[in-house]
Design brief:
Layout: E1 10-12, E2 18-20, E3 29-34, H1 40-48, E4 58-60, E5 66-68, E6 74-76, H2 90-93, E7 94-99, H3 113-130, E8 137-139, H4 140-143, H5 157-162, E9 178-180, H6 187-199, H7 211-224, E10 233-234, H8 235-249
Parallel strand pairs: 1-5, 3-7, 3-8, 4-7
Antiparallel strand pairs: 2-6, 4-5, 9-10
This protein binds zinc ion.
Catalytic activity: Hydrolyzes the link between N-acetylmuramoyl residues and L-amino acid residues in certain cell-wall glycopeptides
Family: Belongs to the N-acetylmuramoyl-L-alanine amidase 2 family.
Organism: Notoacmeibacter marinus
């Protein structure tokens, strides 16, 4: 299969790992990943290998080079078992971007500036062409808490938001003592869960700060409160979640 790039600055290397988007769904979400492999070439080869069953629409190399592997009209296989706003077929409603980075196995190497510049330019084009809302620019960890931890707590979400890509809340607060944490139960826990769920995370309002809740809070912190990722809820975590929820609905 060959096709011409949807993004003007991309070269094409077609992956066979794709299919039609289901239920005529159109992409309204950007899902960002890191490759978590030792090299970009290795990641590229895996995403194109007919037996790997994985792919993405775009891969962004460390030098900023962008490659398109699946046409945007098609469903690429990058999200796996995921959920956001109750929708479980994330592949059908998203565009997947793999960012070359060694990730946690390599102790979270920094993302080079020119790579992030390329990610921003690509995202800007996608957001404009597909009319994607800021709260729909997400990481793999947001839609698969406990299963996925990419693009990792060093990914510069704040820089992206400064360039108009995605939501971020940059208050001046600091990490504080936990207000809520594992093992607690009651109405405040239920309210926290409801707020997380309203924002899009897949968590039920059970009123119990269970393992699922801890993992979802951790995912939230990896994206929106990178200074401390402990799965507990302090004032700063709660304030950011509340303000982001308001911005998302604005
Ligand atoms: Zn991923």
């Amino acid at each position: 299969m060959s096709f011409s790039a949807d993004y003007r600055d991309a070269r094409v290397r077609a992956s066979p790992n794709c299919g039609p988007r289901r239920n005529a769904m159109r992409p309204d979400m950007l899902l960002l990943h890191y490759t978590g492999m030792t090299s970009g070439e290795e990641a590229e080869a895996r995403l194109c290998h007919p037996q790997s069953d994985v792919s993405c629409h775009y891969i962004v190399h460390e030098d900023g080079a962008v490659l398109q592997m699946v046409p945007e009209a098609m469903r690429a296989w990058h999200a796996g078992d995921s959920c956001w706003e109750g929708e479980r077929d994330i592949n059908s409603r998203s565009i997947g971007i793999e960012i070359v980075n060694g990730g946690h196995p390599a102790n979270l190497p920094p993302y080079p500036v020119r790579q992030i510049d390329a990610v921003i330019a690509l995202c800007r084009d996608l957001v404009e062409r597909h009319n994607i809302r800021p709260n729909h620019v997400l990481g793999h960890s947001d839609v698969a808490p406990g299963r996925k931890i990419d693009p990792g707590e060093h990914f510069p979400w704040k820089t992206l938001a400064g360039a108009g890509i995605g939501l971020y809340d940059d208050d001046r607060g600091t990490v504080g003592p936990p207000l809520l944490g594992p093992g607690e139960r009651g109405q405040p826990v239920e309210a926290l869960q409801a707020l997380l769920s309203l924002y899009g995370y897949d968590v039920a309002a059970t009123g119990e700060y269970d393992e699922r809740t801890r993992l979802v809070v951790e995912s939230f912190q990896m994206h929106y409160r990178q200074g401390c990722i402990d799965g507990r809820t302090d004032r700063q975590t709660l304030d950011r979640l509340y303000r982001l929820s308001q911005k998302a609905r604005a």
